[in-house]
Amino acid sequence: KKLAKEHFTNDFSTCLAEPTQIRWYPLPMPDKGQTVDFVDGLYTFCGGGDVVSRNGLAIHQYVCNASMKDRCIYNADGDWLIVPQEGELNLTTEFGLMLVKPPEIVVIPQGIRLAVDVCGPSRGYVLEVYGAHFQLPDLGPIGANGLADARHFETPVAWFEDRDVDSFEVCCKYHGKFFSAIQDHSSFDVVAWRGNYVPYKYDLRKFMTFNTVSYDHADPSIFTVLTAPSSRPGTAIADFVIFPPRWSVAENTFRPPYYHRNCMSEYMGLICGTYEAKESGFKPGGGSLHSMMTPHGPD
After folding, report:
1. CA of residue 153 relative to chain centroid, distance
2. Does 86 show up as a binding residue in the annotation?
3. Is 266 annotated as a binding residue?
4. Prediction pTM value
């Protein structure tokens, strides 16, 4: 059966086009009297492209305070890159278990079944891409060592359960719509697998940052953790970029990000701390959007 999702969409053809700078406050946590799990707590903020032709992306946030009991979800449309901002996530997949907490990220590839357990109010970001999988960026002149290292990515701890239940709900996101089916056993009964198609997590504190040590600004692409390449060489459907703690030592330079325009749209979230280009109104759990070719810079 089809599930109604009031605040979620992958269809941006009817959405309001807004080229101006946008900033959002953090989503409020569910009220104490509410029971909201990861699936029910997904909210779409922006996106582009088409999920049916498998070329595009969407950016969501989640707020939840309850675990997914006898329930799982899989995304038939693409990959999810999940960024917890508050609260740790205990993830159950067909490949095993993972504990993900800020400032870690986790990628759930297309089609993999997932259940999210939480210990309390939780919030975070979800970057969804359809038509490509996330991969490490080409390092070019940087060479072998720098940015995110493949050896620092972790996969689930093997685990399965052989459990019969009266009603186990399998949620599916297909062509941007949510569907539900009921079965009489847990989906997490896979005892063996072969291959390298697997969920994985990464601790952002292990990122090796590069920056200028002379003058001016380097392109933000030097902060790319993962990229989902497009069919056109040198461009991406989405780049996942971070601005970690680092030294800014450029001489004879205005060190905060200067006023500029981009050929790609920028959505920015905040896990913790502050961002040097935004003085107020940009809080952990919030977000901002600077659409392509819209001028923007420091507050």
Report:
1. 16
2. no
3. yes
4. 0.95
